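Project channel, design review

CF: Before we commit to the Candidatus Bilophila faecipullorum constructs, I'd like one complete example in the thread so the newer folks can see what an input/output pair looks like. Taking Histidinol dehydrogenase.
RD: sounds good, go ahead.
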Amino acid sequence: MTCRFLSLTSEALWPELLQMLADRGNPDQSVEADVRAMLDAVRKDGDAAVLGYVRRFDCPAMQPPLRVSPEAPEQAAESLPSESLDCIRQAADNIRAFHEAQKDRSWFLTRDDGTILGQKISPVDRAGLYVPGGRGGDTPLISSLLMTAIPAQVAGVSEIAVVTPPRADGTLNPHILAAAHLLGIREIYRMGGAWAIGALAYGTESVSPVDVIAGPGNIWVTTAKRLVQGQVAIDMIAGPSEVLILADASANPAWIAADMLSQAEHDALASAICLTDDEALARAVLDELDRQSAALPRADIVRKSLADWSAVVLTPDMDAAVALANRVAPEHLEVLTADPWALLPRIRHAGAAFLGPYSPEPLGDYFAGPNHVLPTLGTARFSSALSVQTFCKRTSVIAASRAFAAASADAVARLARMERLEAHARSMECRKQ
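CF: and here is what came back for Histidinol dehydrogenase:
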C-alpha cells in the first residue's frame, strides 16, 4: 500500500496523526551555521561573495553582472508560444483582481473637540522577491513570481527586485523572464539560495537593500529569511507544502487521490491527508493512490511523501473530521462534501479553503486569484496568506485639538508620574499654560 490508513475512532487517538505531522515540522538545524556564514560573507564582501556562491552551487562559469540585461525579459517573451503568454496573462489578471479587493484604505475619525485620529496606509519603498528555479531551472516557479509581485504592485511598492537562481549555463529560464516582462518588472538578478537573501537584506554593490522579502524557498532560503528577519520584514517562515481533504460519501475517490498526489509530487516532505467518515471511500482512495501514483513522472518523490507524511484517515463522523482538521491547521484545505458551504463557518484554521469538487488545490496554485504563498506546519492557527498587506505599513495619525490636550493634561501627567516619568508629565502640563 502506497499510503498509510488510520482509523481514529475517538479524539484520544488523534495523537497518532498529530505526532506524525509534528515530526515533519522539525527543521534541519544543521544548515544554520552554514547559512550564517553565507550571510556574513555577503554582508562583508558583497557581490564578490554572491558571485562565489553562485559559481559554487549553480553555475561554475558565472560571470558578472549579476543583474539581467534590460532587454532580456522582452526577448524571452518573444521566444515563447503565444499560448503560453496568454496563460500567464490570464493568471495574472485573476490574481490582480483578487488582490485589488484586498487593499486597505487610510481612515480618520474626528472628535467633537476637533481632534483628528486615524491610520495612514503606505507601501514600503522596496520589495525583494525570491523565485525558486527548481531542478536547475527546468521547473521554474512562474506562479510564485506572479503571486509575490502582483500583491506588491497592487500595494504600490515603487521598486521590486527579483532574485532567482541561474541555470548551469548562467541563463535564467525564459518563462520566468517572460512573466517578469508581462508584469513590467525590470530589476532581476541571477542568484538564488541563502546568499541571494543576504544580498536583498544587506545590499551589495549591485543590489540595493529592500524593506520586505517574500517568496518560497528550500531550507537554506527559509533559514536565511528567518535570520535576517528584523533587518527586513519577511512574508513568513514556510515549510513543505501540504493538503488536507475533508470528504464524505458523495466525493469522487479518484479526484481525491489526484488532489493528494498533486501535493505529494512537490517534495518528499510534502503531506497529503484525507479525512473521511466513510470507510468505503477511504479504501477506494487508497486504491486510487496506488494506481495513479505508479504512472507519475515523479513517482519516487510521490511514494516517499505518501509513505512518510500522508494518510487516509477514517473518523467516526464529519464533526470529528472538522475538529481534527482545525487541530492540523493545514496550508490547503479541500472540502469535498455534499454541502461544503455548511462546513465553512466551522473551519477556523486553514491557509486557504477550497470548496466543492471543482475547486482542486492546483486551481488556487496557479489561476483562481487568491495567493498561494500560505502558512504551513500548523501556523495557519495564527498567520495568513501573503497579501497586499505584506507590503504595507500602518502609521497612526494623531492631530489633537488645544481643547483635548488641555482637558487630558492632568490625567496624562498622573499616569506618567505613576511610571516615574516626570518629563512626560511636564510635557503635557505645559500645554495648559
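RD: helpful, thanks. Residues 172 and 355 are 37 Å apart (CA to CA).
CF: The chain is about 45% helix and 15% strand.
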